[in-house]
């Protein structure tokens, strides 16, 4: 099962457990109601920012929300730094260059440069590929832990 099929199921489960409907979730998270509806239908994945907002709202890890983990740990995560800062922390932590990251995860130099400049945030798919390649959590990649 891929992320696009796991994420909607997890989101629905968490919404059911919290007894929250789409309009209320949209109001409380400031995520557009139509975007949440599309997440639930499996039509699209959230941005890194929306993923973090949802994980914070439900007090779960992004990995749990994405279906990469079955552990619902109910803990408070750190506020995530801008990815333009986090990418440099990751390169140092893994002792790799951005060239190596690009090769390992099949990302273009231009993509990584845009992340470093703060022009773009990674997609959820990119975050998951990085986490898988370096055997860590998406929360670690985002700087939440």
Summarize the structure.
By secondary structure, the chain is mostly helical. It has helices at 3-18, 22-29, 33-41, 48-58, 62-66, 83-94, 98-105, 109-117, 124-133, 138-142. The protein is built from ten helices and no strands.
Number of strands: 0
Secondary-structure content class: mainly alpha
CATH superfamily of the largest domain: lambda repressor-like DNA-binding domains
Q: Tell me about the largest β-sheet.
A: none
Order of helices and strands: HHHHHHHHHH
What overall geometry do the principal axes of the alpha carbons give? elongated
- The percentage of residues in β strands lies in under 5%
Q: How many helices does DSSP assign?
A: 10
Distance between the amino and carboxyl termini? 26 Å
Would you identify the regions where 5 or more consecutive residues have pLDDT less than 50? none
Query: Radius of gyration from the CA trace?
Result: 15 Å
What CATH calls the topology of the largest domain is 434 Repressor (Amino-terminal Domain)
Helicity level: 55-70%
Could you outline the blueprint of secondary structure elements for this entry?
Elements: H1 3-18, H2 22-29, H3 33-41, H4 48-58, H5 62-66, H6 83-94, H7 98-105, H8 109-117, H9 124-133, H10 138-142
Helix pairs in contact: 6-8
Report on this model:
The chain has 145 residues and is mainly alpha-helical. It has 2 domains: 3-66, Orthogonal Bundle (434 Repressor (Amino-terminal Domain)); 83-142, Orthogonal Bundle (434 Repressor (Amino-terminal Domain)). Helices cover 64% and strands 0% of the residues. The chain is elongated.
């Amino acid at each position: 099962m891929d992320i696009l099929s796991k994420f909607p199921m997890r989101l629905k489960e968490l919404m059911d457990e919290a007894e929250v409907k789409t309009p209320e979730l949209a109001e409380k998270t400031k995520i557009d109601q139509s975007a949440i509806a599309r997440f639930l239908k499996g039509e699209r994945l959230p941005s890194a920012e929306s993923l973090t907002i949802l994980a914070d709202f439900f007090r779960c890890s992004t990995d749990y929300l994405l279906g990469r983990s079955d552990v619902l740990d109910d803990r408070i995560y750190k506020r995530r730094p801008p990815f333009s800062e986090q990418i440099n922390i990751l390169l140092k932590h893994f002792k790799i260059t951005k060239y190596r990251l690009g090769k390992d995860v099949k990302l273009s130099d231009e993509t990584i440069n845009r992340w470093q400049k703060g022009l773009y945030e990674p997609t959820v798919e990119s975050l998951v590929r990085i986490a898988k390649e370096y055997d860590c959590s998406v929360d670690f990649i985002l700087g939440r832990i």
